[in-house]
Predict the structure of DNA repair protein.
Amino acid sequence: MVYKNTLFNVAEIEISYKPKYKPSEIPQISSSEQAYEVLTQHWDLGRIEFLEEFKIILLNRRNRVLGVVNISSGGVSGTIADPKVIFATALKTGSSGIILAHNHPSSEVDPSSEDINLTKKLYSGANLLDLKIMDHLIISKNSFYSFADEGII
């Protein structure tokens, strides 16, 4: 079937990224402690023990923070970390690296088997896109768990 002179209505997609800072003015992350500090500055600590949230830190090639993005907010026992949303955000910003992060409202920072499986899945997907998952932090108000520090990634 040939469509001659048929007009299709489709959405136009435009991608843009407009940082409002100089790279030298933003933090450079070289440890899980520094990542934790950045995250706690961008987390509503009044809700950290109430709702589970998933965020990512976007990094340039020198591990400077391009931004912190809220990926999802859930309930007391979980939230969704959609790989499509995570990778679309990283690709749109031209990020070279990503630090994954979520909290456990219980304040227990040890990873569940679901946390480990998700991290491995995202790590594999990132490799296909030439992105680097630098770490995955599970945070609470007063402590954190680092997958990189523990040798999981």
Q: What stands out?
A: The CA atoms of residues 119 and 136 lie 7 Å apart.
